[in-house]
Automatic annotation (TrEMBL):
Domain Methylguanine DNA methyltransferase ribonuclease-like residue range list: 5-64
Reactions the enzyme catalyzes: a 4-O-methyl-thymidine in DNA + L-cysteinyl-[protein] = a thymidine in DNA + S-methyl-L-cysteinyl-[protein]; a 6-O-methyl-2'-deoxyguanosine in DNA + L-cysteinyl-[protein] = S-methyl-L-cysteinyl-[protein] + a 2'-deoxyguanosine in DNA
EC numbers on record: 2.1.1.63
Keyword Transmembrane recorded: no
Active site: C120
Family: Belongs to the MGMT family.
One GO term (biological process): DNA alkylation repair
Protein name per Swiss-Prot or TrEMBL: Methylated-DNA--protein-cysteine methyltransferase
Keyword Signal among UniProt keywords: no
Major location (coarse): cytoplasm
GO molecular function, one term: methylated-DNA-[protein]-cysteine S-methyltransferase activity
SUPFAM superfamilies recorded: Methylated DNA-protein cysteine methyltransferase domain, Methylated DNA-protein cysteine methyltransferase, C-terminal domain
C-alpha cells in the first residue's frame, strides 16, 4: 500500500492507494516520518489541491474503497451529488431504492473512507442543518462554503 499526506487548509489528509485504486483519503492528526508515494497518490494530491484552490469540481481517480454492498451503493450515490449541492440522508435512501433506510444511509455515510472525493460532506439533515461528519462539523462547513464560493 502506498501512503502519502497532503496538508490542506482544514488539516492533513492521509491518502492510501494500491495499484488498483485509492483506498482511503482521511483526515489525520499526525504523520509517520516515512511515506511511500506513488503516481496514484501524487495524482490524488494534485486533484485535491486543485479542488481546494477552486479549480476542480469533480475527481477522476480510480477508487478501491472496501465496504459492504450497501455501503458501496451509498458511496456511489454520494458521488452523484453535484458540486455545490446538498441532499438529505432520505434523498440518498430513495436514490438507492431503500426509502426506509435513511439511518442506515447515515451509518454508511459515516464510514465513507474517501473524504472529499466521495462527497459525504454534501449530506445535510432533512431540516437543512449540518449533521455529523467524520472530519468534524467545522471541516464540513468549510467544504460546503468552498463549494458555494
Amino acid at each position: 500500500m502506498n501512503i502519502d499526506f497532503l496538508q490542506t487548509p482544514i488539516g492533513k489528509l492521509e491518502i492510501k492507494a494500491s495499484e488498483t485504486g485509492v483506498h482511503s483519503i482521511l483526515f489525520v492528526d499526525s504523520q509517520p516520518e516515512k511515506v511511500s508515494p506513488s503516481n496514484l497518490t501524487d495524482e490524488a494530491c494534485r486533484q485535491l489541491n486543485e479542488y481546494f484552490n477552486g479549480k476542480r469540481r469533480t475527481f477522476d481517480l480510480p477508487l478501491a474503497a472496501k465496504g459492504t454492498d450497501f455501503q458501496q451503493r451509498v458511496w456511489q450515490a454520494l458521488s452523484t451529488i453535484p458540486f455545490g449541492d446538498t441532499v438529505s440522508y432520505a434523498y440518498i435512501a430513495n436514490a438507492i431504492g431503500k426509502p426506509a433506510a435513511a439511518r442506515a444511509v447515515g451509518a454508511a455515510n459515516g464510514k465513507n473512507p474517501l473524504s472529499i472525493v466521495v462527497p459525504c460532506h454534501r449530506i445535510i439533515g432533512a431540516n437543512g442543518n449540518l449533521t455529523g461528519y467524520a472530519g468534524g462539523l467545522e471541516r464540513k462547513a468549510y467544504l460546503l462554503n468552498l463549494e458555494q464560493a
